[in-house]
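Anyone up for a design puzzle?
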């Protein structure tokens, strides 16, 4: 009987843990919700500088050199995040969103826009391979893009929006 217990217990625990993980749809909903919350929150205090732009980058993330001040690569381990800054765009700018939606046949897993106090932002998610998604967040004239796995959507969309929101574009 004890042998059956040694086999049964790990299977039971695996089943319970599998039931606790969020579905891909829940990951997407949580990620967009995180981006929306970060967009509406007060901007994070800048702790890094790219070119002439001050911005927030969470601990453990690194701005790779060279950076031309408009296009930067932020990394953490093997994960890479492309940051584009257009200093000619104001907080009300829809420029990056319009570029995203030019192709009307593009299928998005999520496509949400945000507006607050005249500011414009968005979050989009596109499936590019099994368990690989492209995340794009933007606020005014700053946009960040990455390719990530489903389980990382909520945390990535949160800090990505915090970073683009930290870039002062006439607030």
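Challenge accepted. My sequence:
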């Amino acid at each position: 009987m004890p042998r059956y217990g040694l086999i049964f217990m790990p299977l039971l625990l695996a089943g319970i843990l599998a039931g606790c993980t969020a579905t891909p749809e829940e990951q997407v909903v949580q990620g967009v919700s995180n981006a929306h919350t970060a967009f509406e929150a007060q901007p994070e205090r800048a702790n890094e500088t790219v070119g002439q732009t001050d911005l927030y980058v969470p601990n453990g993330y690194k701005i790779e050199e060279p950076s031309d001040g408009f296009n930067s690569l932020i990394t953490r381990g093997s994960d890479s995040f492309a940051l584009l800054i257009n200093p000619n765009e104001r907080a009300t700018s829809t420029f990056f969103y319009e570029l995203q939606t030019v192709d009307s046949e593009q299928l998005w897993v999520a496509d949400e826009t945000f507006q607050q106090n005249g500011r414009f932002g968005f979050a989009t998610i596109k499936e590019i391979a099994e368990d690989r998604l492209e995340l794009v967040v933007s606020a005014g004239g700053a946009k960040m893009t990455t390719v990530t796995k489903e389980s990382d959507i909520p945390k990535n969309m949160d800090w990505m929006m915090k970073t683009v929101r930290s870039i002062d574009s006439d607030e």
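A detail worth pointing out: The longest helix spans residues 2-20.
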